[in-house]
UniProtKB/TrEMBL annotation:
PANTHER family: SULFATE TRANSPORTER. Its main location: membrane. Gene3D superfamilies: STAS domain (3.30.750.24). The lineage of its organism: Eukaryota, Metazoa, Ecdysozoa, Arthropoda, Hexapoda. The chain crosses the membrane at residues 80-100, 107-124, 144-166, 173-195, 228-245, 266-284, 324-346, 358-376, 396-414, 426-459. It is a multi-pass membrane protein. It comes from the Eukaryota. It is found in: Membrane. This is STAS domain-containing protein. Residues 1-23 are annotated as: Disordered. Pfam families: STAS, Sulfate_transp. Keywords: Membrane, Transmembrane, Transmembrane helix.
């Protein structure tokens, strides 16, 4: 009875007030469905006038202007102690991460130098410290191993430019495409790779390796050259570090002392190892492999290298960027991810201005490159010094410091949470972990994101489609309800199921109701497919109505074919009212 429905009403759907139906489609209705493009020029000009030069915006972009005037002097002593504690940590940590990056030890200290001052001016989270991190060091190592420190310094400059640009353009949302399983897999793989690379130093073995497989191949190839006292010192250092970590759990009068001893554990074991090596070397050859000379003095302030010479081959700026390859994109994303994640962890319920964090991080890297820094980012743990004493730092001690830190970067707890919460999410976790170990961190991250995006695309292309046959006023209706918005990848899937369900419903069902109450968006492909569904159902001698579709969705479809879609959209009625209205139209 519904196959020849009259098609002359717009049912009030294209008027400003959908509750006030009109009988014709005029110029107002036509204007109502038009799609207006945003006036970007006017919007940017308004934002510039109202925000860029205001006092509020200046204070927002220079947070020191907000916190310094209100700083309470009674906190100065506590902050001084905290600063000294972090300072004791940064020396062995900087040297260790320089070793991970394949650089001379002094570059680790250079990298911790500029960020502290810049972040104090531009940073928005008081608990974040800026410096070299294990993951950033490992990702730089691939290029530094064969090409030298100039590429690490240029990486810092490029990272700063990219991060600053993304911050100014408010593009921090890009890191949201890196899911928790991918992040956990990447972090775990990085920790395993870093620890694997330090096993050779822990055992006193020769050789150089950058990747997970290479590291263990080198270890097994040279295992017969293991140095006894390096191994003893390294293993003992790991045991001491793990034991000192537990001091933070002391209670009573030892609580404060335990806390600071635990925080200073890296510095204390390095100092202890250095003293031991110095004393044992006084009688002759030291029993341990030593770090060697560390260049003294502060780094000179100069532009980063935009060209360099390696093995008598000159690299121009474009050639250096080409050699850095995908790390020009990967390093900034990892830097942003680490820094913002740590800022959120310390936020204590406060909102984090991701844009400001990115601006601060970008400036830290740009200015850091002027003092020979490698790429830096936010870290949980971060004096003019007489550096000749660093000569006696045993390599096994530095390796132990790094390996002990990596124990807690492997995210076993995250894997357990993922498995408990959504078992299928373990697939991108494992894909990222295994790919990073076998292919390298940059490609592994891309594989993990790709696998995760496949999951997202599959979900968008396969919406759940609920259906039921309901009898209303002596008429059987097939009601089909997709459970989400519809995009091009789901269009044919929707059509297939609608036509199939219609064909299986029997000849007694002459009206198909497409319920769009959960659909908030469609694209042009879906609109085209909806039009073809209407035509295909008519070939089955069935009519179709679109029930409870949102206004923006209706407008999209009507812009494709206003004459076809306007009479088919109905909104606001119950099914009883809908059938009555259709019956009245047929009788009329």
């Amino acid at each position: 009875m519904y196959q020849n429905l009259p098609q002359h009403e717009n049912n009030g759907l294209l008027t400003p007030d959908s509750e006030q139906p009109t009988a014709t489609i005029g110029e107002d209705a036509e204007e109502d469905i038009s799609e207006k493009m945003p006036q970007l020029g006017q919007l940017m000009a308004a934002n510039f006038r109202n925000g860029c030069c205001s006092e509020k915006m200046v204070k927002k972009r220079l947070p020191i202007l907000q916190w310094l005037p209100s700083y309470e002097r009674q906190f100065f002593v506590e902050d001084l102690v905290a600063g000294l504690t972090v300072g004791l940590t940064v020396i062995p940590q900087g040297i260790a991460y320089a070793v991970v990056a394949g650089l001379e030890p002094q570059y680790g200290l250079y990298s911790a130098f500029m960020g502290c001052f810049v972040y104090a001016l531009f940073g928005s989270c008081k608990d974040v410290t800026i410096g070299p991190t294990a993951i950033m060091s490992l990702m730089v190592q691939v290029h530094v191993a064969n090409l030298g420190p100039a590429f690490a310094i240029l990486s810092a400059f490029l990272v700063g430019c990219v991060v600053l640009g993304l911050g100014l353009l408010n593009l921090g949302f890009l890191v949201q495409f890196i899911s928790m399983p991918v992040t956990a897999g990447f972090t775990s793989a990085a920790a395993i790779t870093i620890a694997s690379g330090q096993v050779k130093s822990l055992l006193g073995l020769p050789g150089q390796s950058n990747e997970f497989l290479e590291s263990w191949e080198n270890v097994f190839h040279n295992i017969h050259l293991t140095r006894l006292w390096d191994t003893v010192l390294g293993v003992a250092t790991i045991v001491i570090l793990l034991a000192m970590m537990q001091l933070k759990n002391l209670t009573g009068r030892w609580k404060a002392a335990g806390k600071y001893l635990s925080l200073s554990r890296n510095a204390l074991v390095v100092i202890g190892g250095t003293v031991l090596a110095y004393l044992l070397s006084m009688g002759g050859e030291p029993p341990f492999l030593l770090t060697g000379n560390v260049t003294s003095g502060l780094p000179s302030f100069q532009p980063p290298p935009f060209s360099t010479v390696v093995n008598n081959q000159t690299y121009s700026f474009s050639e250096m960027v080409s050699e850095l390859g995908s790390s020009v994109i990967a390093l900034p994303l990892i830097a942003i991810l680490e820094s913002i994640a740590i800022a959120k962890a310390f936020s204590k319920g406060k909102t984090i201005d991701a844009t400001q964090e990115m601006i601060a991080l970008g400036i830290c890297n740009i200015l850091g490159s002027f003092v020979s820094s490698m790429p830096v980012t936010g870290s949980f743990t971060r004096v003019r010094t007489s550096r000749q004493h660093f000569y006696y730092i045993p390599k096994a001690v530095l390796a132990a410091v790094i390996i002990a830190a990596m124990f807690f970067m492997v995210e076993f707890h995250a894997a357990a949470e993922i498995w408990r919460t959504k078992k299928i999410d373990i697939i991108p976790f494992l894909a990222t972990l295994i790919s990073c170990l076998l292919l390298g961190l940059e490609y592994g991250m891309l594989v993990g994101i790709g696998v995760n995006m496949c999951f997202v695309l599959y979900l968008t292309s396969r919406p759940k489609i609920h259906h039921r046959i309901q009898r209303v006023h002596n008429s059987d209706l097939l009601i089909v309800t997709p459970d989400q918005s519809l995009v091009y990848s789901s269009a044919e899937y929707l059509k297939y199921h609608v036509i199939k369900l219609s064909a299986k419903s029997g000849h007694h069902v002459q009206l198909v109701v497409l319920d769009g109450s959960t659909v908030s968006y469609i694209d042009s492909t879906v609109a085209k497919i909806l039009a073809s569904i209407v035509e295909d159902l008519r070939l089955q001698d069935r009519s179709v109505v679109f029930w409870n579709w949102q206004r923006s969705v209706q407008n999209t479809a009507c812009r494709l074919d206003q004459e076809l879609f306007v009479p088919l959209f109905h909104r606001g009625e119950t099914l009883d009212e809908l059938v009555k209205q259709l019956d009245n139209r047929i009788e009329a």
